[in-house]
Amino acid sequence: MMNNAPGSPRPGPAPTPGRSPDPHTTAVHAENLTVTRGTRTVLRDLGFTVPRGQITGLLGPSGCGKSTLMRALVGTQAKVTGTLDVLGHPAGHPTLRTRIGYVTQAPSVYDDLTVRQNLDYFAAILNPGRAAADRRTEDVTRAIADVDLTTHADALAGNLSGGQRNRVSLAVALLGAPELLVLDEPTVGLDPVLRRDLWNLFHDIATDRGATLLVSSHVMDEAERCHRLLLMRDGELLADDTPDALRTRTGAATVEEAFLRLVDEAKAAARTKETTR
Ligand SMILES: Nc1ncnc2c1ncn2[C@@H]1O[C@H](COP(=O)(O)OP(=O)(O)OP(=O)(O)O)[C@@H](O)[C@H]1O
User: Fold this and answer.
1) Cβ–ligand 1 contact at 67 (below 6 Å)
2) 251 lines ligand 1 (CB under 6 A)
3) How far is the CA of 67 from the centre of ligand 1 (A)?
């Protein structure tokens, strides 16, 4: 749990025992989560939980605060206040480093190394020493196959397409078999076949490995592929529900339509509040 003073440079542990849901079933728990960037409050008073072993989609228009929320979760965002627990620890806790895989929007790969060399490098950081050499080779080969880059394993990362480079970053995140994968818009720039294959991989990772995935997107049709959704707009949470429940509750045929109805409801509520002041 975390209750940071505004302006603190990093989320720091300040446990409040007994208030969080069971960390065996809950991967992320947030209460009154607020983030300031510069002089702007970009996340306002968020409260939600992310269940373990499922895919939760973080959806909302560009600039609504998805990346900021992900940065707060992995402990790289300053000026975070409120409660944010991740895998039973305050966000940013050192023991979380090897338990979370985080893929940013900008692929973090070395252009002058091949795909395999990139993976070998990160595998050596995760599992150093000669004794782990065989395990590293296995892990690297599996991660490259997971993201469907086996035929490009010996290509220089600098010669790959944008989508392929994104997949190298994803393979790096998969190396340590993380319990929580935080993926910031992983399907941007991918063709429909690769998008489908990646979503199938996300489901395999959740089902076969029991991992939790938090995947951001501003493409609403990807919402239908998630077990649960966090719908955001302007730094606020509009909904925390399953796609089915959202459609039923709003009487909408699609999640996109449900989102638009929730936006209209929020605007109407804000107008009512304004006129009754
Ligand atoms: N360094 C910064 N200083 C001040 N404001 C910032 C900074 N970085 C981002 N912001 C603002 O914070 C808000 C949330 O940005 P964020 O990148 O989290 O949105 P997003 O939903 O991930 O957008 P996208 O889908 O385009 O990546 C935006 O309004 C953005 O302008």
Assistant:
1) yes
2) no
3) 7
Give 233's strand partners. 236
With a cut of 50, which residues of the chain have pLDDT below it?
1-18
The pTM assigned to this predicted structure is: 0.88
Q: Whose CA is nearest to atom 6 of ligand 1?
A: 37
Exposure pattern of 27-41 as b/e (b: 16+ CB <10 Å)?
bbbbbebbbbeeeee
| pLDDT of the residue at 20 | 65
Q: Map residue 209 onto helix, strand or coil.
A: helix
How far is ligand 1, taken at its centre, from the CA of residue 272, in Å?
Answer: 28
Residue type, 139: D
Virtual CA dihedral for 125, 131, 134, 136, nearest 10 degrees? -10
Task: Please state, in angstroms and rounded to a whole number, the distance separating the CA atoms of residues 230 and 242.
Answer: 9
Are 84 and 19 within 8 A, CB to CB? no
Angle, CA of 4, 76 and 190, to the nearest 5°? 140
Distance CA 274, CA 145 (A): 55
| Degrees, nearest 5: CA angle 179-9-235 | 70
